[in-house]
Amino acid sequence: GESVGLHLPTLSVQEGDNSIINCAYSNSASDYFIWYKQESGKGPQFIIDIRSNMDKRQGQRVTVLLNKTVKHLSLQIAATQPGDSAVYFCAEQTGYSTLTFGKGTMLLVSP
Amino acid sequence: GAGVSQSPSNKVTEKGKDVELRCDPISGHTALYWYRQSLGQGLEFLIYFQGNSAPDKSGLPSDRFSAERTGGSVSTLTIQRTQQEDSAVYLCASSLLHRTEWRFQETQYFGPGTRLLVL
To answer: Kindly report the CA angle at B73 between B72 and B74, in degrees rounded to 5?
Structure first.
């Protein structure tokens, strides 16, 4: 999951496993959330978003879960592939504010 | 259409020199952001433009850093008298803050970044 500190938390999985990446967001009033994927040497790319009036949203091989009670967001990746290896960031938005990004989690997928 | 582009993709400079980084946002996007990312770190917010004005400069780390945006489009980030600790990837993002049926919502789209190395 997310953490403050000098090094990114890392999740290591085997190809084909399901991955769960966690994010504890900071503002209970946040009402929109995004997951970004950043591959080595590239800028972050949008993966999936969710509004606060939803608990779950599914995309292609990815699912985002939102638990507002404990201010927790997770990204589930089904049948993880080596191409999923990247740093994953969550971001939150409150009202008309700009996005606030989490620290990121590195996902390493072994063949 | 084209995504966010940044130039140069890589920049090596000597300590004390000035550098200028450029960002071309997605056409029509009104909001533009600059972030800094050090190796293995998260995104550090630097500055945000809405149109040509910068309502939030709170992230600029020192007065050596400045940014401008002209014509509501291209932005340049200038670092004067560069220091070795300025070495990082500088990312630009743009977004269209749009109204949905229930709120304002934005999704930021990022460029590939400029990798700055100060020797």
So the answer is: 130
Return d(Cα A43, Cα A29) in angstroms, integer. 28
Q: A8 and B42 in contact by Cβ < 8 A?
A: yes
C-alpha closest to that of B116 among B17, B23, B19, B40 = B19
**Residue B93 pLDDT > 60:** yes
Is-cis flag, bond preceding B8, omega within 30? yes
User: How many residues comprise chain B?
Assistant: 119
Give the separation between CA B63 and CA B81, rounded to whole angstroms.
Answer: 10
pLDDT digits 0-9 by tens, A28-37: 989 889 999 9
* Nearest Cα residue in chain A from B38: A6
pLDDT at position A5 = 40
The answer to whether residues A30 and A93 touch, using CB atoms and an 8 Å cutoff, is yes
Q: What is the pLDDT of residue A2?
A: 41
Q: Does B59 touch chain A (CB under 8 A)?
A: no
Q: What is the DSSP letter of A48?
A: E
